[in-house]
Amino acid sequence: MPTTPLKMGRKQQNSTIQAFFPPAPSKKRRIIEDLPASPAKSWSLPAGIVYKQVKIGQIQPGPGRITFTGRVANYREVEKNSKLATAAKILLRMALMDETGSIDIKFWLTRPLAATHRVKLGALATVHTTFVSALSSEESESSAAKFMISVSDTDKSANVEFLADSDENWADFRVPIGMDEEGKLEKLMPLKCFVETGSDTPGHRLMVCVKWKGAKKTIPKKDGGTVEKRDIGVFDDSMEGTLTLWGSMVSTADTWEISKTVLLLASPSLKLWRRDVQLTCGPATLVCVDPIHRDTQWLRTYAQKLLRKPDICAPFPYDEFDWKAALYGEQRMKFTFGDIDKYSRNIDAYVNQLPAGQCVGWLNVVITEINVSSLYRRNMLLCGSCCGFTVFTNELSPGCRKCDQPIESMRPNPNIVGRISDETGCVSGGSMIWSEQAWESLLGRNVKELSENTSPEVLRYFDEFFLFMRINLAFGWDPEIGKIAVWDVVPS
């Protein structure tokens, strides 16, 4: 009998024993695939029975027919291996919250929820129940709530109903817990502050924006099953991090929009892996999606600005402010970087307190970084724009790379002033708009004189003279501009 010769070829890559055995699906996935979908018939209120409408913060333990509505702030699915046909196969453990508090819900399911009623973070849910129990001391340590409600999908007097989002109910129950009338939240801190010192503070909160969404991955578990994992990149104005979602929670990020969706995380778990900041949702974590808070729109606007290419050669807004009346009139305002930050986050509350309704005044700052000689060595002392391109050079009239025409409107590179600081914060000079008068007042010469007199002695003199110099900046800020516009510089 003829035999087929073996074909000796290139060795297959990653030819391990695991490649011949596909990963076994998890118990939860097998349960969901085997069970039929939930019946189309919806739960209805028993005839002649009245449920009292309450807020979550008003709920007390004990018997009583109550109903309340909130948004899902945390959840996880746990499979149950009961041999009884009528027993629950899935336990949906979730936390519901409104502006008054949070409560734990145990929703026992004999069959999976329909696709139109899948649970996700931020989903609206209405609960009807007849009894509220208090959490044990052991359970309360790993939960943000004090009370718990247990509901089965076969119960005729209790139910959990998930509501579809619409334009009418979008803003319902998005106010964070504990926000006062002025819109302040206790223990709300930047991500960098949380990483450095705040992770040991109970009840800490972070407000971050979605930067990127990773692919869903299947991770093998030690017991032989698998679990799904998804990494979500998040950031604020201080630093970036990674939010890891596990299990059934991975699908909740499908509707999140990059640079638009804002998350308010209460008591997240922190893990530092090398240089990566990894956040996870623990049992006591509460997640509020797109909260109604003054910092939400500010962070979303900040994220949108990062998507746009920064225009370092933006024209100075001479006609945007009444400079002389605001700076040299009877009412002269002195600001700090902290005041500007507070005004930018809550313009409506402070606009009537400023003369002429404009944020124009004086800043007393210290130059903590100067880059004259370093920019000259990199041929970037001056900058200009033409045909949509930014040109950096040390020449006064360089040619455009697109149209070969000379660029006449060259100006000092704003990055000459590397950083300026006051007692409340610091700002880079490249993120500010400087007028010609401001440059002449600061450097003591115009653009032509700056480009011509560039000997090593002069450049070294600039760096030594301006470092740690205290100056007064006549500035203006407007949300449409998005940058601090420096009109003039006066020695302190």
UniProtKB/TrEMBL annotation:
Gene3D superfamilies: Nucleic acid-binding proteins. One of its GO terms (molecular function) is single-stranded DNA 3'-5' DNA exonuclease activity. Coiled coil: none annotated. One of its GO terms (biological process) is resolution of meiotic recombination intermediates. This is Uncharacterized protein. It comes from Sphaerosporella brunnea.
